[in-house]
Every structure is written in structure tokens, then in C-alpha cells.
């Protein structure tokens, strides 16, 4: 089966609610790196805390919109910080909502990529391991073998203008996005 040459649609989910987060700056830079992809921001801000008592039918209205946003894109890129050596609670909550109902969950079978930025020197290694573990439990197709950790991010962005300025980081991020685009094609052949 030949890859589809139409423009791919990729949802960008930022695992932080902070308006001026470094990860939000990185996510904002991604669309300019690959013109063959149409990116759509998918917000977590209105999602209620996961409660199985509320998870019937389409769920609460913000959950319905969130699940529909995931369903209408070809893939999801998660750009997330690391909080206390792990996954941010707001992101885990969103992934829980996207994991139900079981066989029709929005993220089930969805090509997914992970990017993370932190002021620390180790990148977001621990957070991404936990995110990957959750995504695999959901049965999302996480881009294998590729990692995109951005350490010491404060030296790679212009925080005042909210821009990614480091050319080396841009180069690696662009390569990651291109490989993710190829992964979307490969996942389509798996199904």
C-alpha cells in the first residue's frame, strides 16, 4: 500500500497548562518545521478530573471535544515537561480520558510521538518513559526508537518572544517531526 500523499493532520498536545511554558514554546515551533503537515493544537485546559462515574456516553462536553479532536487527526505529538521525575498530572488525566471507552478509545491505534523540554540537564527521560508506558497500555502506536529530549531549554529559547532560537535543537526537532510523519504512514499499513 503506497503512502497517502495528502497533507497529514497532527494534533499537538502540551502537557502543561502554564501559558508561558517552555514546552508550549517548543510546540509552537513545530508547525514551521514541516510544511507537509497541518498541525492543530489540542488543549487540556477544560478537561475535568477523570471520574468513571462521568465516563458514560460521550462523557462531559470538554471530554467529547477532546476525543473528537484526537479522532480527526492522523497522529498526535505530545510535548511535555517532567514534574517531580514523572508525568504531569494534567497530561495523565487527559490520557486517561483518551483511553476510554476501551475498543473505541480516541488514542487506540493512533500514531503518537513524544517531545519534552526541561531546564534540567537530563531532559525529560523519566517523564517520557511514563508517558510511553501509559500510551502503550492504551494501545497507541508510539514512535519506536526515537527520542526527543531538550535539556537546558532556557538556553535554547527566547522566553520574552516565546521562540525556539537554538538552530541545533531546531535541526533535531525537524528530523524528529519528519520521522514521525513517516511513522504515520507505517502505522496506516499496520491496520
UniProtKB/TrEMBL annotation:
Pfam families: FMN_red. InterPro entries: Flavoprotein-like_sf (IPR029039), FMN_Rdtase-like_dom (IPR005025), NAD(P)H-dep_reductase (IPR050712). Gene3D superfamilies: 3.40.50.360. Residues 9-151 form the NADPH-dependent FMN reductase-like domain. Belongs to the azoreductase type 2 family. This is NAD(P)H-dependent oxidoreductase. It comes from Paenibacillus glycinis.
